[in-house]
Amino acid sequence: MQKTNRRAFLSKAGLLGIGALSGAALLQACGGGEAKIEENSSPAPSPMAASEEAEAVAADCARHNAKLSESDLEVRKSIGYLEQSEMADQNCQNCRFYLADKFDGDCGGCQLFVNGSVNPDAWCKSWAAK
Questions:
Q1: Vertex 116, ends 113 and 118: CA angle to 5°?
Q2: In whole angstroms, how large is the CA radius of gyration of the chain?
Q3: What whole-number distance in Å separates Cα of residue 61 and Cα of residue 44?
Q4: Which of 31, 41, 108, 120 gives the lowest tally of CB atoms within 10 Å of its CB?
Q5: DSSP state of 125
Q6: How confident is the model at residue 126 (pLDDT cuts 50, 70, 90)?
Q7: Helix, coil or strand: residue 129
Q8: In sequence order, which residues have a C-beta less than 8 Å from that of residue 58 and are 6 or more positions away?
Q9: Looking at residue 118, what DSSP letter applies?
Q10: How far is Cα 54 from Cα 61, in angstroms, rounded to an integer?
């Protein structure tokens, strides 16, 4: 059996700690890791219908979201993205994942979305205070 020196032990312990923190942060960003599956759920909206809905609610962000893929739309749906927050004290502007300077104009970005912009007054299940 090979002996482990202090430096190797601390290195491995540090990596394990970072891995645990990263996993916890990922679970929080994904809504706590809990998933509800409904057997009789309605089919996912077509990409065209979702982009038209976004355009109707937030026309200023529509040009950034015009070419979102079906996968991009599924990510938004999975975290419950709403173009307009239903809670006065929770919106994208005061969320820690919001990227205010990612797009020009009023639209911002989100660390949870690879593509597309978000309305600053929007909300999702992964909202976390800054």
A1: 80
A2: 19
A3: 22
A4: 41
A5: T
A6: very high
A7: strand
A8: 83, 107, 119, 122
A9: B
A10: 8
Please give the structure tokens belonging to residue 74.
Answer: 């599924």
pLDDT of 9 reads 74
User: Per-residue DSSP letters for 4-55?
Assistant: --HHHHHHHHHHHHHHHHHHHHHHHHTTTT-----TTPPPPPPHHHHHHHHH
Whether the Cβ atoms of residue 65 and residue 116 lie closer than 8 Å to each other: yes
Rounded to an integer, what distance in angstroms lies between the CA atom of residue 40 and that of residue 37? 9
Domain positions in the chain: 47-110
pLDDT surpasses 80 at 84? yes
pTM, entire model:
0.54
